[in-house]
């Protein structure tokens, strides 16, 4: 089961490391990462596999939101299907 | 393959443009709950609703968090209660509404619809009893919604029922006057009511429907507004294309959520309602879309044409995105629930007559409009008759949900809070429709009802 994580906020050192550490803790496997800086805004989109995650969706959704608050970034995690539904026929 | 731009667009639609699923409504047939003993019938109704929708709210919450898309309302619609209660030996149908209320609260939903009667041609004894129970039913329950269908293109318009509904709306306002006549916000009078509408207050589960069904209403005025802001000054062809593309995306999401809810609740998928439902939040307004097309304020000349284009483009974009489209499908114009409409009404540009014209080209009708508390029952009936005529002749659903708030007059503003919003009291014509309404009888179906 795939999900998409987006991380948006002000660029600084160590954002990917912090997010990936949290994912490792939750046993969520990263499948793909793409990251760019737009007008000093850090924007990262990750595809992850949540099938073997150590907690139910609701829990790691909250954990990631909390991490986002701590880091001063906005982190979202959504199941992949919603993007597929909207953008591919 | 997904690209990052699309992903970020979706996130932005949800986060900044108020994209949401307006409602997931579970339709439940109560025909199996009929019983000669009204106490037993109410117990069956409670049990069936509470059992069928036990997991509705939890399932919707799971979908919300997993897919990151807010589902604003979780609701239940049931078989029109006049059909279920008809078997029971009682004159008082209020206990049936109370059973619905208790069951809906047990399930944790926002509203339950279906305290309804379909009387487009004439009334049965049960229909009459149900309609007469409406004021007390709405005053003594919290989340029950009621609707009455008084006309169809096939059957014509039941003017006796319309005369009665004018009085019922007045009584409902009076019985709920301590809450600014809020009971009337839960009561809608239809022409050409549909059986699979997921939206309140008019939702009921028609007799042509399955035992249970999941119907979904989507929403996204903010997303359409945002898309139109990128085509400023361009011709209407471009406007229509832009709305179609946006409506397609919104509806695809609604379809996905509907299928997911249907699978998880083991309940057949019914329909997706292709709707643009506003809220009183800034940036979530249908009026602002019309203004974006070039109108200084909603309600001025050009508003009807702008709304016609919007309504049609929403349907064209949405229809390919869903495997089954139904409900009311179109742009809603509930005045108190739309930030731009509230402003236009306060400015005096948007008046009842203009709204009536707008209902000829959009989904449903005169919705959530506060009128002076001293408006007569006959004037309310005449407003309903006008709307019903528009619906009957144009083969479309129309409805009236007006709030004749006791003690309030033009210039006052009714604060209802939440999704119901803020309603500036609008003037109605002072001249009498008394003799017109007291003729009674039936307006025959139009010639184009004879299609065979």
Overall description:
The complex is a heterodimer of chains A (89) and B (452). Chain A is α+β, with helices and mostly antiparallel strands. Chain A has helices at residues 15-25, 57-71, 81-87, and strands at residues 2-10, 29-38, 41-49, 74-79. Chain A has a single domain (2-87), classed as ACT domain (Alpha-Beta Plaits, 2-Layer Sandwich). By secondary structure, chain B is of the alpha/beta class. Chain B is built from 15 helices and 15 strands. In chain B, a hairpin with a 3-residue loop joins strand 13 and strand 14 (421-424). In chain B, helix 2 packs parallel to helix 5, helix 6 (125-139) runs parallel beside helix 7 (159-175) and helix 8 runs parallel beside helix 10.
Compact description:
The complex is a heterodimer of chains A (89) and B (452). With 89 residues, chain A is of the alpha+beta class. Chain A has helices at residues 15-25, 57-71, 81-87, and strands at residues 2-10, 29-38, 41-49, 74-79.
Which descriptors apply to this entry?
heterodimer, A: 89 residues, alpha+beta, Alpha-Beta Plaits, four-stranded antiparallel sheet, 4 strands, 38% strand, globular, B: 452 residues, alpha/beta, Anaerobic Ribonucleotide-triphosphate Reductase Large Chain, 2 domains, eleven-stranded mixed sheet, two-stranded parallel sheet, 15 helices, 15 strands
């Amino acid at each position: 089961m795939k999900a998409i994580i987006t991380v948006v906020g002000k660029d600084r050192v160590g954002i990917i490391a912090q997010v990936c550490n949290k994912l490792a803790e939750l046993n969520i496997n990263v499948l793909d990462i793409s990251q760019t800086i737009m007008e000093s805004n850090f924007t990262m989109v990750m595809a992850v596999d949540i099938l073997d995650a150590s907690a139910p969706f609701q829990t790691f959704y909250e954990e990631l939101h909390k991490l986002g608050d701590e880091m001063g970034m906005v982190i979202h995690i959504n199941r992949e299907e919603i993007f597929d539904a909207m953008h591919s026929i | 393959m997904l690209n990052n731009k699309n992903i970020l667009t979706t996130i932005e639609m949800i986060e900044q443009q108020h994209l949401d699923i307006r409602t997931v409504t579970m339709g439940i047939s109560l025909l199996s709950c009929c019983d000669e003993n009204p106490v037993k019938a109410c117990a069956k109704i409670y049990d069936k609703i509470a059992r069928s929708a036990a997991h509705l709210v939890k399932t919707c919450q799971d979908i919300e968090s997993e897919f990151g898309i807010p589902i604003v309302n979780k609701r239940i619609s049931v078989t029109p209660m006049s059909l279920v209660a008809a078997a029971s030996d009682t004159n008082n149908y209020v206990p049936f509404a109370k059973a619905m209320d208790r069951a809906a609260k047990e399930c944790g939903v926002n509203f339950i619809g279906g305290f309804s009667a379909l009387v487009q041609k004439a009334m049965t004894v049960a229909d009459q009893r149900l309609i007469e129970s409406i004021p007390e039913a709405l005053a003594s329950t919290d989340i029950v919604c009621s609707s009455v269908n008084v006309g169809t293109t096939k059957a014509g318009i039941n003017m006796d029922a319309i005369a009665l509904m004018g009085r019922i709306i007045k009584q409902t306002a009076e019985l709920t006057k301590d809450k600014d006549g809020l009971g009337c916000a839960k009561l809608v009078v239809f022409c050409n009511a549909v059986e699979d509408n997921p939206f309140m207050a008019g939702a009921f589960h028609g007799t042509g429907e399955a035992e249970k069904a999941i119907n979904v209403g989507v929403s996204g005025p903010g997303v359409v507004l945002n898309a139109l802001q990128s085509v400023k000054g361009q011709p209407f062809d471009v406007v229509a294309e832009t709305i179609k593309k946006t409506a397609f995306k919104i509806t695809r999401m609604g379809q996905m959520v509907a299928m997911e809810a249907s699978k998880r609740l083991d309940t057949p998928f019914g329909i997706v309602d292709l709707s643009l439902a506003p809220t009183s939040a800034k940036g979530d307004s249908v009026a602002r879309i019309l203004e974006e097309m070039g109108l200084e304020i909603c309600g001025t000349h050009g508003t009807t044409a702008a709304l016609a284009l919007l309504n049609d483009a929403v349907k064209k974009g949405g229809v390919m995105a869903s495997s089954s489209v139904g409900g009311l499908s179109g742009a809603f114009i509930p005045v108190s629930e739309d930030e731009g409409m509230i402003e236009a009404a306060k400015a005096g540009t948007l008046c009842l007559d203009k709204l009536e014209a707008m209902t000829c080209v959009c989904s449903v009708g005169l919705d959530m409009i506060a009128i002076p508390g001293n408006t007569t029952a006959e004037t309310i009936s005449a407003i309903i008759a006008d709307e019903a005529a528009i619906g009957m002749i144009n083969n479309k659903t129309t409805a009236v949900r007006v709030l004749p708030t006791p003690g309030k007059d033009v210039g006052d503003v009714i604060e209802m809070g939440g999704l119901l919003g803020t309603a500036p009291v609008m003037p109605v014509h002072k001249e009498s429709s008394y003799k017109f309404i007291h003729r009674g009888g039936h307006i025959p179906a139009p010639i184009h009802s004879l299609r065979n």
